[in-house]
């Protein structure tokens, strides 16, 4: 069906400015200045994409001056520059604290041009000076081997958002302004980016912004009409429909549409001023009254042609206002003299010789349009948040120790106990720490945190919300049922100098796989950038784990996030699987103190056996992996078998398997090994946490069978240990994609991680047991089938298996043996 003519006219981006806000705040002289600054910026953008030499076109453009491989994107640059430079006027007028977040993919030319013209780029990189030689180096480095990428990468001053993967600009911006009451995050949102799920949910962030304690996000939705080679959805719907969309999201949309330069300058200047006035007015009202409320925050919908100011057609094909302007706008300049001439004419239309002059730098008059010092958006300290970061004030985690009078037999609520510690972390850090999650904090047994900080909520309140709703405008817990949004908030919060923790169900953390990938790449690249200061670690606590999703079924059973994280650089990722509550406290204290890592911690939220006292837990976690002598029977002897585990539930089943083996073969010499730091398994040559081969052999031996019960997919352990001496002896058991509505033990049986399967596997690996092993194996198999049958019959596992504890007579026997060794070796 064809659109009618009036609809086409409503959505086309050309002509004299059409804007919601009318007014002419600029004089003719100011318009001329802004137009010259616009030209200087656009010239730099084309120079970055195309030129390796002849930066000021001091001689006719030749193909030798063109990069052999032209990379970069021009299409969104004009709109971004246009917004940035008009915000500068208001920063100067009102002494604003503002940060620019560039959402459109490959949007770096716009951001880099502003940083260069503001003088920040040359301050950070002195060889990129504001002269002919510096400009040439500035052009050459862009999307060039040994240079910088075409996103707003960590090398870009003022950037906390690379924009490599689309969809996170708004959530990052909100993360930056939480607890940052004077900051305005001016955020460009590409219309292609707007089609992503994460971006769509992030518009709801305005329901979480407290006008007293937080800053503000000023989104500018840039409708330039096209993605790579398709129209964008929001650019092709009627004006009324897009206005209603954002009214429905709770924003006040102001439109600026057109292409006529002079009228567009006036319209953008007037509209941005209205937006800033709205923001400051809402904040003043809330702060003067002391009563937070949810304003309809302003936003701008900016409609300009894609590749604005470029040639309308090249070789009889549309360029400006069409998808061909998206990336490298003219592609044949190296081979087609006509295209080369078109590019030269286009670049000369920006009058570089007049605007940059003989010294190849803009005049002081044009420079005066920019703010100075830290008020320049590319110099804002928030853009290098590590410089603002202060250490968390952490309570002494040892004060929250779970008492373990009978190790291996004492029960305890590991996660609930950690929640008490977390409550006091929040209490001690009321403006620099937030807890994030997708509506699962209470479910994850962390509800004690609400005693120090409730859930942020600026929506409507019902009477029943007082009955356990835990809602408050000035809360510290950020919950929204969008993993993308809460992860984006936390990333923005951390990158701007603060601290956070995300808690989530393990099976659905995959939703943010690629977000975590991007963050890992960001912090790894930051390690190579001298002026970037380390930020707090991104901490992800996974619970409701695969082995306790038996009741929710197959869809809820996936521990594979660890595989994703393990693929990232060893410089920036850590994975911890604490086996009990005291180890969880020790691990979390370490992670909350750390910087520039992605820490993933996996711990179940149900009650579990506690194995270690606090002193033992601290030593175990410091080592990362250790022999649990109190659960071993090989003290001072050669082991027959190594039983290893990694993960709390996996450890429970592994110890229960040791008990079964000793019931049948009390003379067996079994070594119990527990791993809390997964990367201890990898070679020291490949990861700084990895054990040396000598350490490996001393713990696992080089020739004894190893039954390794692992929380996640077994192949990950095989991958990490493939270089190890005697790696053929490692037999890993883990989740094998077998699940349904099961009991916990039956789910373990299906995946061969249960105590019976482990014990039978161990017997199979010890041929010296002979026929005695056959008899015991048969007995174990019968017991396993009997347990599974009872689960099918009654819907629960047998009590004697569910409530199993480590036999205290074995513990006492080991204590005596250990005491004997200590007497023989008093300095051990």
TrEMBL record:
Residues 26-387 form the Xylulose 5-phosphate/Fructose 6-phosphate phosphoketolase N-terminal domain. SUPFAM superfamilies: Thiamin diphosphate-binding fold (THDP-binding) (SSF52518). Its cofactor is thiamine diphosphate. InterPro entries: THDP-binding (IPR029061), Transketo_C/PFOR_II (IPR009014), Xul5P/Fru6P_PKetolase (IPR005593), Xul5P/Fru6P_PKetolase_C (IPR018969), Xul5P/Fru6P_PKetolase_CS (IPR019790), Xul5P/Fru6P_PKetolase_N (IPR018970), Xul5P/Fru6P_PKetolase_ThDP_BS (IPR019789). PROSITE patterns: PHOSPHOKETOLASE_1, PHOSPHOKETOLASE_2. It holds the Pfam family XFP_C. Residues 605-806 form the Xylulose 5-phosphate/Fructose 6-phosphate phosphoketolase C-terminal domain. Keywords: Lyase, Thiamine pyrophosphate. Belongs to the XFP family. This is Phosphoketolase.
């Amino acid at each position: 069906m064809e659109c009618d003519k009036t609809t086409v006219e409503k959505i086309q981006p050309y002509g004299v400015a059409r804007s919601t806000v009318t007014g002419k705040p600029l004089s003719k002289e100011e318009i001329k200045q802004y137009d010259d600054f616009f030209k200087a910026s656009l010239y730099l953008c084309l120079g970055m994409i195309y030129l390796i030499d002849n930066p000021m076109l001091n001689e006719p453009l030749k193909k030798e001056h063109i990069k052999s491989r032209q990379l970069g994107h021009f299409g969104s640059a004009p709109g971004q520059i246009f917004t940035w430079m008009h915000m500068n006027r208001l920063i100067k007028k009102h002494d604003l604290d503002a940060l620019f977040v560039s959402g459109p993919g490959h949007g770096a030319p716009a951001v880099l041009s502003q940083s260069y013209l503001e003088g920040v780029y040359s301050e950070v990189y002195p060889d990129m000076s504001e002269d002919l030689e510096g400009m040439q180096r500035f052009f050459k480095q862009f999307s060039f081997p040994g240079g910088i990428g075409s996103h707003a990468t960590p090398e870009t001053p003022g950037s906390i958002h690379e924009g490599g993967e689309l969809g996170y600009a708004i959530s990052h911006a909100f993360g930056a302004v939480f607890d940052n009451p004077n900051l305005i995050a001016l955020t460009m949102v590409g219309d292609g980016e707007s089609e992503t799920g994460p971006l769509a949910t992030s518009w709801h962030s305005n329901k979480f912004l407290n006008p007293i304690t937080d800053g503000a996000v000023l989104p500018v939705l840039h409708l330039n009409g096209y993605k790579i080679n398709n129209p964008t959805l929001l650019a092709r719907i009627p004006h009324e429909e897009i206005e209603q969309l954002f009214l429905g999201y709770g924003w006040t949309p102001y439109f600026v549409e057109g292409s006529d330069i002079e009228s567009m300058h006036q319209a953008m200047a007037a509209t941005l001023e209205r937006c800033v006035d709205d923001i400051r007015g809402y904040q003043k009202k809330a702060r003067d009254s002391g009563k937070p409320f949810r304003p309809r925050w302003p936003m701008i919908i900016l409609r300009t042609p894609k590749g604005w100011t470029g040639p309308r057609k090249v070789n009889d094909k549309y360029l400006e206002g069409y998808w061909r302007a998206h990336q490298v706008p003219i592609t044949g300049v190296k081979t087609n003299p006509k295209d080369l001439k078109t590019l030269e004419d286009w670049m000369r239309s920006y009058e570089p010789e007049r605007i940059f002059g003989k010294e190849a730098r803009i005049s002081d008059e044009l420079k005066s349009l920019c703010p100075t010092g830290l008020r320049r958006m590319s110099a804002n300290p928030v853009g290098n948040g590590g410089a603002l970061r202060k250490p968390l004030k952490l309570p002494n985690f040892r004060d929250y120790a779970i008492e373990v009078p009978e190790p291996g037999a004492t029960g305890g609520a590991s996660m609930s106990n950690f929640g008490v510690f977390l409550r006091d972390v929040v209490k001690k850090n009321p403006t620099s720490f937030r807890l994030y999650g997708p509506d699962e904090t209470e479910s994850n047994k962390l509800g004690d945190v609400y005693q120090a900080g409730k859930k942020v909520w600026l929506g409507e309140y019902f009477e029943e919300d007082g009955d356990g709703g835990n809602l408050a405008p000035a809360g510290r817990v950020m919950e929204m049922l969008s993993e993308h949004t809460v992860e984006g908030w936390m990333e923005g919060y951390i990158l701007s100098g603060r601290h956070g923790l995300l808690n989530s169900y393990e099976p659905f953390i995959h939703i943010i796989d690629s977000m975590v990938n991007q963050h890992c790449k960001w912090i790894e690249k930051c390690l190579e950038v001298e002026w970037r200061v380390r930020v707090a670690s991104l901490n992800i606590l996974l619970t409701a784990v695969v082995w306790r999703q038996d009741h929710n079924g197959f869809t809820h059973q996936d521990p594979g996030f660890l595989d994703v994280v393990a693929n990232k650089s060893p410089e920036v990722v850590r994975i911890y699987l604490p086996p009990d509550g005291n180890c969880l406290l020790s691990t979390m204290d370490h992670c909350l103190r750390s910087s520039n890592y992605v820490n993933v911690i996996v711990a179940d939220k149900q009650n579990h056996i506690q194995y270690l006292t606090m002193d033992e837990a601290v030593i175990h976690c410091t080592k990362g992996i250790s022999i649990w002598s109190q659960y071993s029977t090989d003290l001072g002897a050669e082991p027959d078998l190594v039983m290893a585990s990694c993960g709390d539930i996996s450890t429970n089943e592994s110890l229960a398997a040791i008990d079964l083996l000793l019931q049948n073969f009390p003379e067996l010499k079994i070594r119990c090994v527990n791993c809390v730091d997964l990367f201890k398994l990898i070679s020291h040559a490949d990861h700084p946490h990895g054990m040396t081969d000598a350490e490996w052999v001393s713990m696992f031996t080089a020739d004894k069978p190893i039954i390794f019960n692992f929380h996640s997919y077994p192949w990950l352990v095989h991958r990490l240990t493939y270089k190890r001496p005697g790696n053929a002896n490692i037999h890993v058991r883990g989740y094998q994609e077998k699940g349904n509505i099961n009991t916990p033990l039956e789910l373990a049986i299906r995946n061969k991680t249960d105590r019976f399967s482990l014990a039978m596997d161990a017997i199979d690996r010890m041929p010296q047991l002979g026929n005695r092993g056959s008899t015991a194996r048969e007995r174990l198999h019968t017991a396993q089938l009997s347990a599974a049958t009872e689960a099918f019959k009654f819907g629960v596992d047998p009590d004697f298996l569910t409530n199993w504890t480590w036999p205290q007579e074995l513990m006492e026997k080991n204590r005596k043996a250990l005491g004997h060794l200590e007497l023989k070796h008093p300095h051990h």
